[in-house]
Write a structure and sequence with these properties.
Layout: E1 14-15, H1 22-30, E2 35-36, H2 39-46, H3 68-71, H4 76-100, E3 115-119, E4 122-125, H5 126-129, H6 145-153
Parallel strand pairs: 1-2
Antiparallel strand pairs: 3-4
Helix pairs in contact: 1-4, 2-4
Length: 160
């Protein structure tokens, strides 16, 4: 959409949310992300058990608390290696997947490289599902059929 409105070159996109593996990184980049954040996966590498007590200051593992007693269970000298290894392995898997697709760099990936099963016997590329737009076409009123309903229902005064 940013490309369609002719403003994609004016900003950087950071993808976050369910970025857990090298594949998730490549998928986000193929869809237009410039970079990715991985919060939940890093928290789990650090030792988070998803007790859902983050906001209470009573995290049982010491990951999400300021309570000195609870945070004493978080042994940084041990956990730093886990986080580092997770990060290194995730980036390495993204590079390996890109190489397996015949690419020399992760930024070369496109929507045509990513496939998604849309029905039990129907697999499509992301390019088929989310077609690329010509730069500035939406701003010029040349709206492809696939995007017409989205633009007609889009509103600036509220989130749906």
């Amino acid at each position: 959409t940013l490309t369609g409105f002719g403003i994609r070159d004016k900003m950087k996109l950071i993808a976050s949310g369910r970025v857990l593996t090298g594949f998730h990184i490549l998928r986000a980049i193929a869809l237009g992300a410039d970079t990715c954040n991985s919060a939940r996966a890093m928290m789990m590498a650090l030792g988070c058990i998803q007790a859902l007590l983050c906001h209470t200051n009573k995290c049982p593992t010491g990951v999400a608390t300021q309570d000195r007693l609870r945070s004493s269970g978080l042994v940084i000298s041990d956990k730093k290696h886990r986080v580092s290894n997770y990060h290194q392995d995730t980036v390495e898997s993204a590079v390996e997947l890109a190489a397996a697709a015949g690419l020399t760099a992760t930024h070369e990936i496109s929507r045509s490289h990513i496939y998604r099963r849309v029905f039990i016997n129907d697999i499509r590329t992301f390019e088929d599902i989310y077609p690329s737009l010509e730069y500035g076409c939406l701003a010029q009123g040349r709206i492809p059929e696939k995007y017409k309903l989205d633009l007609e229902t889009a509103r600036t005064d509220r989130w749906l």
